[in-house]
Design brief:
Blueprint: E1 3-8, H1 12-23, E2 32-35, H2 39-47, E3 52-54, H3 57-61, E4 64-69, H4 76-80, E5 92-95, H5 102-109, E6 116-121, E7 131-137, H6 143-153, E8 157-161, H7 167-175, H8 177-194, H9 199-219, H10 224-231, H11 237-247, H12 250-268
Parallel strand pairs: 1-2, 1-4, 2-3, 4-5, 5-6, 7-8
Antiparallel strand pairs: 6-7
Length: about 270
């Protein structure tokens, strides 16, 4: 094989993975090839990541020991077309597409082989080396395959293994999770501005507070609930905000929103 890793769909998440594995020395740029129909994405991979990039999925796939499927769920069937006829049964296939099960990928690669497929759900904090990834093995994936996938993602993320029927939940909690976090910080900034701060002041206060709070959760043995209670003095300003949120149903809204994300993940796989 000419390459260790072929990427089909050179999007933002694939970029994060490549930046992680190359910066940590897991793979060299010359051990990776990427395929994407968008010229601008190919140019970014070539110019910034120094990874060979082409437009033809099958040509990229035939040259690599391991295959990363980074296309959108709606594009998966078309992306898999023809790949099964050019890759080896020993090729490890890793998908990062939401909602697409390993059985779907195995079926569209073709019935001639017991394809070794692992479904994964990474998130965008991989771009800064703080990602979270869950892995689920398909019917024919081995323990060695899980180890290989772990090595790929651990360069920029913490990795857990779950049963495949829990991947949609992982998607809802951590795959989509950064957006929920960003949305909360957006509103903190907006509130600060409405209360008289400059945009720069509000942004600095909100983003640094969020970063510090996240670091406290990571470094503390206490639960988020316990940490929250320590900030919430009886009769104080924090309690006024929390009581208002709870009285307007915010906690349940957040839970229901994550359940909606999980449901959408299941729908994408139908």
């Amino acid at each position: 094989m000419d390459y260790e890793l072929a990427i089909i769909g050179a999007g933002n998440m694939a970029e994060a993975i490549v930046r992680g594995v190359t910066s940590q020395g897991v793979l060299r740029p010359d051990q990776i090839i990427a395929a994407d129909v968008v010229p601008q994405r190919r140019a970014l991979f070539e110019e910034q990541l120094h990874v060979k990039s082409i437009a033809d999925n099958t040509e990229a796939a035939r040259q690599a020991r391991m295959l990363l499927l980074g296309v959108k769920p709606q594009q998966m069937q078309a992306a898999l077309s023809g790949i099964g006829s050019v890759i080896s049964p020993d090729t490890l296939v890793i998908s990062i597409a939401a909602g697409i099960g390993t059985a779907y990928i195995e079926r569209h690669l073709g019935a001639r082989s017991k394809w070794r497929v692992i479904r994964s759900m990474p998130n965008t904090p991989m771009l800064v080396g703080e990602g979270m990834v869950a892995l689920a093995r398909g019917a024919f994936a081995t323990e060695a395959d899980i180890t290989s996938a772990r090595k790929l993602f651990e360069s920029a993320a913490d990795v857990i293994e779950v049963a495949e029927d829990r991947i949609d939940t992982v998607t809802a909690v951590s795959g989509s999770g950064p957006a929920y976090f960003f949305l909360l910080v957006e509103q903190m900034i907006r509130a600060g501005i409405e209360l008289g701060l400059t945009p720069e002041q509000a942004s600095k206060l909100a983003t640094k507070t969020a970063a510090g709070a996240a670091k406290m959760m990571i470094n503390s043995s206490e639960s988020p609930e316990s940490l929250r209670r320590k900030v919430t003095s009886p009769g104080g300003t924090t309690e006024a905000a929390i009581v208002f949120m709870e009285s307007h149903g915010w906690p349940q809204i957040a839970i229901d929103a994550i359940k909606a994300a999980e449901l959408r993940g299941k729908e994408l796989g139908q």
